[in-house]
Each structure stands twice: as structure tokens, then as C-alpha cells.
Specification:
- Strand 5, helix 15 and strand 6 form a beta-alpha-beta unit.
- The chain has a four-stranded parallel β-sheet with strand order 4-3-5-6, with helices on both faces. A two-stranded antiparallel ribbon has the order 1-2.
- The N terminus is likely disordered.
- The chain is elongated, with a radius of gyration of 34 Å.
- It folds into three domains: 171 residues, no CATH class; 100 residues; 96 residues, Rossmann fold, CATH 3.40.50.
- Helix 4 packs across helix 11, helix 9 runs antiparallel to helix 10 and helix 13 packs parallel to helix 16.
- It contains 16 helices and six strands.
Amino acid sequence: MIVSLLPPIPTNFRAATALPPLIKLDRRTDVLLRTPALCDVASPQTPRRSRIWELAETLHCSIVGTCLSNAELRHALARLGVNGIEAADDHELHVVGVMLGGRRDAGAKLLQRALDRRHAIAIKQYAKARDEDALRQLWDASMRSGDIPGAYWALLSHPAATEAIVKKAFQDVHMLSHLVGAANRADIRRLRQLEEEKGALTEKLHRQQQQLRDGFTSRDETIRQLNKLLADHHSAGEPAANPADCREEDGARRVIADLNRKLGQETTRRERLEQRLNAMSDGMRTLEASFQAAQGERDALRREIESLEDHIAGLLQPATGDGEAALDLSTRTILYVGGRPNQIPQLKALVERTGARFLHHDGGIEHNSSLLPGLISRADVLLFPIDCISHDAVATLKRLCRQLEKPYLPLRAASLATLASSLAGINRGP
């Protein structure tokens, strides 16, 4: 249980986690309403970015959950002095963070600073937008690149953000959370572990730096006092060779040497922690890049499966009365370059099933490369799988297609599913 300066969190789970409805309906339209102070009151001043406590409370849950990591949120709540935050689980952290988002004087300012500091680059990028269309273009680009947290906060707090674009961003983030939770649980667990380790290392680094500063201060003060004592002895005219003075000077030197040794140890420890932190950051970036690549591969496979299912459904349907097929390419000639020899008969059967004419060239392995110009001139479109053709053959094909003004289409893989998806795209046309 977290004990804080906020009103007590209800013990009932539903009461503790219940949030107001996302969409507020009126009799004229169905829109996502923002705070009246931002949307309904005209101000003669230059528009400024919205603060988190000025946004609708229904947005606080997605902002805290998307734009701040658990380690960053825990660090912010610890700075606020929330008791028991070290032992709180992720859900309790999230609930307290959402409650603080709407309370300006109870911690929302600290959350605002944490969000602005974490996503300064995205905020600067989105500041160039002047209207809803520009914001929509930036948001679509962020969705394609997978850079969601910073873009989401920059868009919601942008002075030009309208109800429509805020609603679209909220819906996109909501659906993205479902996709990520369903397909990438292992990656999420790994990212969470890395975030926790990074947060722990950051806290440890802060403590080590504080210890180093305290050590410097203590060492300098000791040296100052020892120098003062030595100066007092000499100014009093005491013999420099006095045994008591020699022992005192030797003691001072030993103290200084011990302080320098401890300082060196702390410096080495801090450097090791910084190296570990950098290695963890590099690992997180590599994992995020792999995650984005896996998402792209997953989306491509999904499109191919949908296209293949449509094609199979068309093949299973009985022909119409005039004999028209579901996929008709009877006026086209398809040139397929590359691929695996054992798949060519199946690929040819699939193409000819649509009524198109099938031509094939292996890219120069056994077939003469001089035949390519003639085949390309006879074809309506050229297809080649990027995973089963040489780089030299691809360069030659692109050059010949530009010279002969023929369209070409790279295929993701040498498979029936990929070819079926491409044939469906050719059938739809540009």
C-alpha cells in the first residue's frame, strides 16, 4: 500500500482503477473533449503548449503508461516523497501517476518536467507544425517509424492539437497496445527488465556521484585544516625539525594519501557503472531496432496471408455464368526472374490459373543473361524475389527496365504466398 499526501486510494480494485469515460458525448457530435480552458476560451496571447493537468483526465492514463517508463515514474514519485513507493508494483505506480496528472500542486508539475525533459527532441520536431494537417503528417510518420512515446506527448500538448487529431492519436495508441501485448510479450518483458536495470544503475550512479562530491569536499577541508596547522606552527617559530611536528606532518600526509586512494577507487567504480549503463543503452537500442524489424516482417506476412486467403476463396468459388474468374490477368505477360528451380512449375501454374502468360529466367545461373532484354520487352511486368537472386542480377534488371520503360516489382520472398499477393496487387492496378 502506497502512503502519500494524496487522498487515500480506495481498497476496492474497481474503485481504485476506475477512470471516467474516454469519449464524452453531447447531442451534436461524438468527440474527445479537452479542458474548457484550452478549447472554449479564446485568448489573445500566443498559443502555448498544454500542461498535463490541463488535458482531459481521460488522457492521463495513456500519457503516463506510454510516455514514461516505470523506472522514470518511480523516480519522479520518490522525489515527491510518496511513502512506500520503493515496494510498490507497476500497477500501483501507474494509478498514483494517473491521479497526480490532474493535480497541478500535488505533483503534476514534476510529471510535466519529466515528460518535457524525456521527449525534448520530439517536442522540438512537432513545434514546426502550425495546423492539424501538419500534425497529422508528423503523427503518421511517427507511427510508421515506431517512435510513439515522444510523438504522443508532443502531439497532445501541442497548441494546434484539435479534438479530431487527439482522438485519432489516442485510438492509434490504444490499438497499438493491443498489438504489442498480443505479439511481443517476450520483447516487452525484456524491455521492462532493461528499463528497471537502467533505472537502478542511474540511481546508483547518482549516489556514487554524490559520494564523490562529498569525498572531494571532505578531502579539501582536511587539506585546508592541515595546511593551516602547518602554517600556524611555522609562524609561531617552532623548529621544523621538532619530532612532534614531524609526526604531525607524517600523519597529515597519510591522511591525504588515504583520501586520494579512496577517491581513486570511487572514480574507478563510477567509470565502470557508466560503461555498464552505456552498454545497457546500446542493448536497448538494438532490441528496439529488432522489434521494429519484426513488426515490419509481421505486417508483410499478414498482408500476404490475407491476399492468399482471398485468392484461395476465389479459386473455390464456382465460375460465374459468363466464365469470369475472381482474378483475371488474361491480358498480361508476367516475367519472373530468379527463384528456386523446384518452385517454378508451381509458380507457373499459379500465374496461368489467372489467365496470364508466364515467362521465367533464372537470373544468369544457367540461362544466358543476353536473353533478358528480349524477355523484358515481351513482358508487361517483371517480378523477382529479393531473397533468391544475386545483387548483380537485380542491378541489371533495374537498368534494363528503365531503358525499356517496363515496370518491375521486388518480392519479399520466393514463395507462392508472396507471388499470390503480388498478382492481386497487379490485378487491382495502380
